[in-house]
């Protein structure tokens, strides 16, 4: 059977983008289906063995504590549920060294499904050096199999192509040296809309549970129900309770909610209620987040030594 007669498969690899809303990789995959470039889609997620069992590069400290580990598992479980309910799809969950497991999966599909041709792999791009090394390993293998790949910038508020100073390598060394610009003009618009590895303490004990649904609930609670955003600047360094800061960073880290989406929700709050130093401050913190991500791209492994 020639490749032209086979069903074309697109593999959607979820990484730190564990959401359906405002997900560029998912959006790209849907466009490939609509353009009739893909007939079938296989969403996958791989729990990284090195994250669960390995240690840090120098001190060999655990990379995941019990609460963060369980938060990740909850987030993947929520993603799987949402794929089933909203897209009538499933999530193929793997465990191991990610590049090795992806190779195994692809070889299995090729061997056991002669009527399927793997056309694309679509995933978000990352900035830390280990994740970039992983992308390069996967890309090298996919190139050898002539599988097309899309790595998309999806965890940044400001896309590299929209930076006011050109290439990300020109990011100033100091945040205060960033040129003045209107974030509204360059922040991309957001897109409209259980594999338990090990036993862990329940993160719900802390009132915070993983997943896109919980991220949305927290944002709505802090922004629009308690008006916590209204006083964010004056309370953000508190230590007691749940409402002194947004608490959204843990969901942002796993991509359960996107920085672009949060930025435009801040703008919605300003339109509906008020604009003050606190609303500007939270948007500013999202810019800080991008600043450090771009520096991670520039300095690569040097950051971790």
Automatic annotation (TrEMBL):
Species this protein is from: Brachionus plicatilis
Binding site for FAD: 232, 245-249
Necessary cofactors: FAD
Cofactor mode of binding and number, as noted: Binds 1 FAD per subunit.
Highest taxon in the source lineage: Eukaryota
Similarity section: Belongs to the DNA photolyase class-1 family.
Annotated protein name in UniProt: Cryptochrome DASH-like
Biological processes annotated in GO: photoreactive repair
